[in-house]
Give the backbone structure.
Amino acid sequence: MSQDYDVIVIGSGPGGYVAAIRAGQQGMNVACVEGWKDDKGDQVLGGTCLNVGCIPSKSLLETSHKYEEAKHGFEKQGLKIKELDVDIEQMMKNKNEIVGNLTGGIAGLFKSNGVTSIHGWGRVLNSKQVEVTDLKGNKSTYGAKNIIIATGSRPIEIPPAPMKEGKIVDSEGALEFDEVPKRVGVIGAGVIGLELGSVWNRLGSEVTMLEAQDTFLAGVDQAIAKDAHKSFKKQGLDIRLKCRVTKTEVKRNLVYVTYEDGDGNEQQIKCDKLIVAVGRTPNTEKLFSSDSGVDLDERGFVAVDDECQTNVPGIYAIGDVVRGPMLAHKASEEGLMVVDRIAGYATEVNYDCIPNVVYTHPELAWVGKTEEELKAEGEPYKVGAFPFAANGRAMAANATEGQVRIIAHEETDRILGMHVVGPQASEIIAQGVIAMEFGSSAEDLALTCFAHPTLSESVHEAALGVDGMAIHKANRRRKK
C-alpha cells in the first residue's frame, strides 16, 4: 500500500477541488484523484464544469449575446456598425484560453494548500482504501481516514439518438462546432438545451427544440417560465412541446429526426447538427469494488444522508453523484460542509436556499418555492411582482423584458421564494438567497435602501408589492 492520507477526494470538479482545498486549509494531509487529461496526456483539473460545462458554455453564451446585441440592439441606442461577422475559430480560442486559465489556477491552489494531485482513475475498495489506475494501466492503492466521492455526472444517451459522425452530439460536442450550422436540432428544452440552443440561434442557426414534457420548464415558477417562453419565441427559437423522438438517421450529410407529436402523429425535421440534451447521469459505474459496502440507489446515485455521509462511516459523496440538483455551486457547498464536519465543525447546507440559473437572454434565476408548489401544499402565500419595463436602468440597457417575483408567507411574511426573468437575473437572485438564508420577511427587503438607478431596485419594488405598496407601478387598491 502507498501513502495514507487524512482525506482522499476522488474527482476534481467544483465539489472535489473545493473539498480538497478546504481540507488543506484545515491542516489535513489530502490527495485529490483525477483522471482527466489533455492532448499531451497531462492531467487537467476542474472536471466537467470547468472543461466542458459551466465555464466554456458561459463563454459562448456571453460572446453570442454580444454579437446578437450588436446586430439587433445597438442601432436603437444610436450605435451603427457597418459590418459584423462571426469568427468561430477565435471564439473557440477565447473559450479555450478561459478554460486553461481556470484549470491551471486550480493546480496552483492545490500547490499553495498542500494538496497532492494523483493522476488516474479512482476506485473505492473495502476498509477505506482507494485504488488508482494511471494512464498506463498501472494500479496503486492508498489508504485514507476519510474518502470524499466527487466524480460528477455525464450526459444521458438515448437509444433513438446515438452519437454519430460529429452530426449527433451531446452537450460537450455542442461546444466544439467549427462553423455556424444552418439548422440545429435540440432534443430537450431544459436548462442545458436552452443555453446551447440560444448560442447557435444568436449566431444565425435555425434552432428547433423538441421537448417531451407538455409544460415548458415545468419545475420553474410558471409566471417566469411563460415570460421566458415568449422571449425565446420572439428570438426565433422553435420550441415544440409534447414531442417524443423515436428515431434519428444521418444521410446526405443531414440528420433526420423522427418524433411523435402531442396528437400521436409522426413528424420529422432535418438539421445539420443535432444536440442531445436530455439530462445527466451520475458517474458511479466501476467506482466501487463489490465489497466496498457503499450503497447506491436504483438510479445509480450514491445514497447519503443530509450531511452527505454514506452508509459506510468515513466515506462521503457530494455533487452530481448524490440527491438534489446537479449544480456546481451545490457541489462546492457540500464539499465545504463535509470537510468542516470531518474537522469537527457542525456545519450544514441549507438546501432551501440553493439558487438555480438558466444563462439565456433574458436570464432566469430562482430560489425557494414556486407558486405552483405552494398551491399544491396548501400553504398560504402572497406575491409581489415588478416588471423590468418600469426600471430605469433596464431601459438604459435596452433590456426591459421580464420581472422579479417575491413570494412570502401570507401570515408570517417570511420570504418563501424569489423568481427572476430578465437582465442579470443570475446576479440579482443572490439578494433573494441572502434574504432567505437570514430568514428575512418581505418587509425587511421593503425597508432596505437600494441604490438608484439599478436593476436591483426591481427587487425592492417586488418586496413592496407583496403588500400592494410598490411605488413605480399601479397596485391593486387596498381594502380599508
Q: What stands out?
A: The mean pLDDT is 97.
